[in-house]
C-alpha cells in the first residue's frame, strides 16, 4: 500500500532523512516511534506533500502509484491522512462525525 524507495529528504539545505526504504502493507497497523528530532514528523509531512520538505531522491508509492511529485490535495484525495497527537477540537463535533463526513465527501464531493 505504501512503499518508500531510497527516500532522502531535506529541509532547507539540511539532510534529515537519507536513503529510507520502507514498505507498509494494507490492513496492518504500524507505529513510528523514536526520540525527538529523529525525523518522524519530517517523514509524515513529506508523505503529505508539505512544500517545505524537499525530496532530494527516491520515490513514494501509494497503492502502486508513484506519488512522489503529487500535490498534497491529490495525496489526500488518494486517501493519505495526517492526524496530530493533540488535534484541535471543534465544539460540538465528535471525531467520529468529522471522519464520517470526510469519508462521505470522498464518495460524493457535494456531500460536504
UniProtKB/TrEMBL annotation:
InterPro entries membership: ABC_transporter-like_ATP-bd, FeS-cluster_ATPase_SufC, P-loop_NTPase
ABC transporter domain: residues covered: 18-95
Keywords: ATP-binding, Nucleotide-binding
Molecular function via GO: ATP binding; ATP hydrolysis activity
Gene3D superfamilies: P-loop containing nucleotide triphosphate hydrolases (3.40.50.300)
Signal peptide location: none
Keyword Transport: no
Entry-linked PANTHER family: ABC TRANSPORTER I FAMILY MEMBER 6, CHLOROPLASTIC
Family: Belongs to the ABC transporter superfamily. Ycf16 family.
Name the UniProt record assigns to this protein: ABC transporter ATP-binding protein
UniProt organism field: Candidatus Roizmanbacteria bacterium CG_4_9_14_3_um_filter_33_18
